[in-house]
Amino acid sequence: xxxxxxxxxxxxxxxxxxxxxxxxxxxxxxxxxxxxxxxxxxxxxxxxxxxxxxxxxxxxxxxxxxxxxxxxxxxxxxxxxxxxxxxxxxxxxxxxxxxxxxxxxxxxxxxxxxxxxxxxxxxxxxxxxxxxxxxxxxxxxxxxxxxxxxxxxxxxxxxxxxxxxxxxxxxxxxxxxxxxxxxxxxxxxxxxxxxxxxxxxxxxxxxxxxxxxxxxxxxxxxxxxxxxxxxxxxxxxxxxxxxxxxxxxxxxxxxxxxxxxxxxxxxxxxx
Length: 271
Hints:
Elements: E1 5-12, H1 19-35, E2 38-42, H2 56-59, H3 66-78, E3 81-89, E4 96-103, E5 109-114, E6 120-123, E7 127-130, E8 135-136, E9 143-146, E10 149-153, H4 162-170, E11 175-177, H5 184-202, E12 205-208, E13 212-214, E14 220-222, E15 226-228, E16 234-237, E17 243-250, H6 251-260
Parallel strand pairs: 1-2, 2-3, 4-8, 10-11, 11-12
Antiparallel strand pairs: 1-17, 3-4, 4-5, 6-7, 9-10, 12-15, 13-14, 15-16
């Protein structure tokens, strides 16, 4: 049965290289979100393990694997859809995939998305990262039909590529997840602007949990996890700490926004 109104949650944490501690932490926040009535809980990018890049291959897991088993059981126990922001996934090669996994309320994996765009940047005196040194990019746009609506999946740096989000929306996405570990210098300048733009241009709910604090590799993450409605209005924003935020998803309101300002019906794609 389709659910038209419900509560969604975004979890903001500072993950470390201890998987058990990270799982304990996000589990506690998911339980808290469920107590607030959340039906959809979204975790940030690399919430499961975040450590030195040379160790990523060792830290990677198969999907499904031991951590997915625990997360699926958590979703089942709480009766929530749980979007595991991203897990480093074994690829059989020297590099790994950065993979987002969606569990339904029965604890079953119903979708997985391998991050397409890899964050290779050098901003002098701020941040230098080359994800492609240790990670492989995916090549598939993923939407997941659920009773809560069609969920479009993306991860962090994907946010800068609007064509991906238009593809998600044209494939039916109503709710778009952007689990992230957005760096502080780029986040302070662009995070909210980009999130609101993706919500406005696609008339979609955007749920964007972010990492907060300094990573084991020394990178400072921006936090400011947000939930944004289809008009582009932030309806929840995280404080500067590890926390969970909640906001209402109203698909009837979304239908009205799309009906009254029918820009999605006016899309003209060049051939």
